[in-house]
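Hi there, hope your week has been kind to you so far. Do you reckon you could talk me through the fold, stretch by stretch? Thanks so much in advance, here it is.
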Amino acid sequence: MTRRPESKPAKRGSQRAPSALVAALAQVGSLDVAAQFEAHPEWPRLPLRSYPWVDHPPEHVVAAAAAAARAPESVPTLGFQALRVSLAHELGTAVGARVDVDEIAVTNGAMGALSVLWSALLEPGDQVLVPAPNYYVEGSIILAGGRFRPVQAVESDRTDWERIERSITTATKVLFLTNPNNPVGKVLTRQDLSVLATLVDAHPSLWIVVDESYEAVQHEGRQHLAAWLDPALRDRSIIVRSFSKSFAVTWLRLGWLAGPTAVVQSVAKVIQWQQLYGSFLNQRVALAVLEGDRSWLSPAMEGFSHGRNLLYEQIAAIPGCRVHLPEAGPFLFPDISRARKKSSAIISDLHRHGISAIPGSYFAGSETCFRFPVGGDQETQLKAAEILAQVLSD
């Protein structure tokens, strides 16, 4: 029998390096900015909200958490059957067609849904085409062995589908979209869904992944259009949603996805190897939220449209700054390329004044743009407008 060579003792102070792949990844944009605030406790932190939030969840939600803690159960890999059935009904009602429970997977957050989905869909070297600016998914794609390919194709009032189609190659496995777009706020229209259906018809190996995390934050009475409203997309697309954001329970870290049964079966295998299963307590609370009274959610959704309008008016009036009115979502995405100061200096000043501005480069967009949230009470929004006007006019 061949003997295994004995390892030499490591020299004092030496250590094997961690993964170079991981070391090369940038930090997630929002967490990178949060780290800057942590490093500077002397900076104020303006309480602008980037997602629906309630300070005190209703009693039936609290009671569900307490009951779950008193009587824990094991959790199936894809989530509790009752929760999956309820989510299938929720989506089916939105798209006007039956959604089967076998098409639903519950995950540890929407980011968790994307992570297991990349592993379920991608072979090493497969390309994920990302119309930009768009939410930061580069790291999760790379960790799954895929290739991240951004293409500048999203504006406040249109998506450049011709440019997107020209960018599809034989290596392109997935087209990733956010609806509403994060950070621009552009929403998919029925015409956009029709274009997507044409794309998948022309490219039989292409999957569409649509992250609908902010589907509940709409402006001017607009109704969210889920990708599955077009029947032609049903077998070729996967919807990812953030239960935490849609139902103002961000602290749950609960997400879910809807996709063809074969995809969900692959997702189940990935979850088994990565996580085994999700949180029992979180899923029991989520079920209580879905099945209980929802009137408490309305106040959590209020304020975003007011903040959008107020801050838009203030920023649009500042010389050297351009900003578009988003159709949905809790953000504005100003372009400060014409400002007198460098964009990096402006963003640094915003941080020092307590505004969590995230540079556009994190979204595979322009460094002269930045994203910042508009949610909160009126006093906070007015303070933010005052700070933005001051910093951008200096």
User: Anything to note?
Assistant: Confidence is low (pLDDT under 50) at residues 1-5. The radius of gyration is 22 Å. The longest strand covers residues 172-178.
